[in-house]
Specification:
It contains 7 helices and 6 strands, in the order αβαααβββββααα. By secondary structure, the chain is α+β, with helices and mostly antiparallel strands.
Length: 212
């Protein structure tokens, strides 16, 4: 009986150790990935078709401006700095777009660190977690969200093609470890798919439920 108790204790300790290692791996890897991207988050006034259409028009206006500002950016920090310096312009552009389309909603624009669900951009998949982002709230901001990556510029790809430009991929590669980049870009490898699931399972246990 004593031998069984010892075996049980060893197995239990091994399980706890493995569990803690998985949590540590997931959190460190998730942080490594999130530290290298700057995202855009637009929240519509409501889920009505009119408000959702307006959300996309605001998105397009902001992306065109951001693309102009950051066309020569070489780092996430530079992109955030430029966005901070022009945050008033982002608000003006969003308000103008809203008014031009016959609405009078207020707009809120801020840069911060926010929770995001798992999201796929072409052939790149980012795990859920906390990411630095430019968040835009339209009106009551009770409608569905829209997300993309402003740096590296993944917002400007045709998602339907399923391909991210090599330039954007190279920016990600240069700023991430080989392990981190493999996790977000190679979802066909079963081992990497398992590790990605670990990120989703352990890295963000406190992630607030958000609309997709």
């Amino acid at each position: 009986m004593k031998k069984y108790k010892v075996c049980f204790l060893v197995i239990l300790l091994l399980f706890i150790y493995t569990f803690l290692c998985a949590i540590s791996y997931a959190k460190s890897t998730s942080i490594g990935i999130s530290q290298n991207v700057f995202r855009l988050h637009v929240i519509a006034n409501s889920d009505s078709k009119e408000d959702q259409d307006l959300k996309y028009k605001v998105r397009d206006s902001l992306l065109n401006y951001m693309n102009y500002l950051t066309s020569n950016c070489s780092s996430k920090e530079e992109a955030i700095s430029i966005a901070n310096d022009n945050i008033d312009n982002f608000q003006k552009i969003a308000l103008k777009t809203i008014k031009d389309n016959g609405y009078n909603y207020n707009i809120s624009v801020e840069i911060g660190n926010f929770s995001f669900p798992t999201k796929t951009y072409g052939d790149i998949t980012l795990p859920s977690g906390n990411y630095d982002a430019l968040r835009v709230k339209i009106g009551e901001a009770k409608g569905q969200n829209w997300w993309c990556v402003m740096f590296p510029p993944l917002c400007f790809i045709d998602i339907s093609s399923g391909i991210v430009p090599e330039e954007s991929k190279n920016s990600l590669k240069d700023s991430m470890t080989e392990e981190e980049y493999s996790l977000i870009s190679n979802q066909k490898d079963n081992n990497l798919k398992f590790k990605f699931k670990l990120l989703e399972l352990f890295a963000n246990t406190d992630l607030i439920s958000m609309k997709k």
